[in-house]
Write the structure tokens for this entry.
Amino acid sequence: MIRASLTAARLVGASERIEWTIVREVAPLLARSLPGRPPIDMSPEVQRRVREILGVEDPFAEAKRRANREALSLLPRLREEVARAPDPLAFLLALAASGNAADLGSQEDFDLEEISSVREPWGRFDYELLRTQLAGATNVLILADNAGEIVFDRLLAEELTRLGKHVTVAVRGAPTLNDATLEDAMEVDLAQVAEVITTGSDHPGILLSKCSQDFQRRFRDADLIISKGMGNFEGLSEERGPIFFLLKAKCRPVARELGVREGELVLKAASG
């Protein structure tokens, strides 16, 4: 969270003095409040303070727009690859999981061209179980994660729609880090292929108790849930139901919890 806070400062060209102000405020806040709480539960408080110090409503806004534009430029090539894939759904799950690397919370920059071209190995791939549950599903809910990455999720939503499913994609209710919001969904025309809703929360992950009543109802009514990213895994790891976590394990604690190596892709059933 300290790294993400400094990334926010650098994205808006803040001075080194401002960076030190952020560190001096964020580090003690985390030391006092974080032990015993999920990190994503602290993130909104931290990011609100960072925005106050910077005097900027959303320091990640331009970086998100840039990522969305870059990802959209890749669509023609990616659609050709989907058309050639022996199993389009498996291909798109790998692409969507790889896209989870588009995370400015864990790094200062990323290259979507490279992310979309390089596939890390699967550390866990509960694909047959997903296919079995998908066969009996009508309503599929995708819990989105980052901007840019959401374009890869759009391709996955297109495929699920082609398979006869009603697809809903949930984005964050307000800006937080470089997570996708309604503005990002509009930029990538996500509503053309899926119903778009928000979590009603500015947490960078799903904590059901902090989400809107409407989102909680949609979550409970879904026949199948594809949960993207580490933040959503962190918030939902104790939940049970038709949930499949789809992500790249970008840090040691998450990799250890999932039983995979750091950097590997994961498709894991919540009940597995």
Summary: The chain has two domains: 2-54, 61-269. The chain has a mean pLDDT of 94. Residues 246 and 267 are 5 Å apart (CA to CA).
